[in-house]
Design a protein that fits this description.
By secondary structure, the protein is of the alpha/beta class. The chain has a single domain, classed as Aminopeptidase. About 15% of the residues lie in helices and about 15% in strands. The strands form two sheets. The chain has a three-stranded mixed beta sheet with strand order 1-2-4, with no helix packed on it. The longest helix is centred in the N-terminal third of the chain and has 15 residues. The radius of gyration is 13 Å and the shape is globular.
């Protein structure tokens, strides 16, 4: 299980596919290490274009910090294998991301 930190591309370089390439490379590397599932807290219109499923909470995956109801769709999940959506519960993240300020919109 992994968390894909939200990414950013400087405005003058957006709409060129750079973000999608970064996501694809991250997913490829996770698959190479046999990760089963990946989460992201990100833009609700952007990440589903890259196969993320909105509102991971409704599937049984609680975010490390509460996600406000009005942006619950921003907590997303993507299975990376057929076993990906089988273990449910609260997602625990690395110390570097385990700060409330990283979990606010």
């Amino acid at each position: 299980m992994h968390i894909l930190s939200p990414l950013a591309v400087i405005p003058e370089c957006q709409n060129q596919g750079i973000g999608g390439l970064l996501i694809a490379e991250g997913i490829k590397r996770l698959q190479e290490i046999n990760s089963k599932i990946v989460f992201v807290l990100g833009h609700i219109d952007y990440y589903p274009k890259h196969d993320f499923i909105n509102d991971a909470g409704k599937l049984g995956y609680t975010a490390p910090y509460p996600i406000p109801v009005n942006v619950k769709d921003a907590w997303m999940v993507m299975p990376l294998s057929s076993a990906g959506l089988t273990n449910f519960g609260k997602v625990i993240c690395a110390k570097a991301m385990d700060k409330p300020e990283h979990w606010r919109e």
